[in-house]
Amino acid sequence: MADENNQVTGPDEGVTQPAENAPAVEAPAADNAGPRRERGARGGRGGGGGGRDGGRGGRGRRDDRRGGNRDDDGGEELIEKLVHINRVSKTVKGGKRFGFAALVVVGDGKGRVGFGHGKAREVPEAISKATAAAKKTMVRVPLREGRTLHHDGAGHFGAGRVYVRSAPSGTGIIAGGPMRAVFESLGVADVVTKSVGTSNPYNMIRATFEALTDQTSPKSVAQRRGKKIADLLGRGGSQTAEADAAAVTE
Question: Same domain, yes or no, for 140 and 225?
Fold first, then answer.
């Protein structure tokens, strides 16, 4: 039986049902439908490109931003020379445990050079440790005309003794073994050297650096003594003292 509001009353429990010609009533939207759509737009945890890292490019982009570390020397290119690598072993309960020790020389080819020593279980890691140590211990060596040393010198460490001499243009690097790596990284083009007493690369390198750290330039000597460079260069009877003084850069 239909009532005034076009509704039919059931015979059993009095449940009100809509009539056939009654207008359809639209159901109200759920309160949380909006937030669900917003989360879907940003992507779920398992969706491609979604989640906490998906909207910001993922973890890979953050690693790329951190990975661009430049050298402490202002990003300049350095010359790296592997001088010596030695395999060492340690006897333990289960057998022998092997490791590697690397000796590396690093320079910029413009008067700065350093050496470092590193040890690790693998060769690449040992070389990287030695290179990092060499960059921290770089020293400045004054060069004449950017190609040779200003004067002769000598150095010793332990049983090793080395002698270095300046040379005219076209001589080349007359050095062998570890000493050649030092001068090539330093940027010296003409030099004559001699090593006496030992062939241990560690002692030869340290003796060479002792000889290089004793190098001085006419400019530094003139500043220390309060004189002009031409006065120092002309004391030996040089007729071109003024021209030589003008050519001195370090």
Answer: no
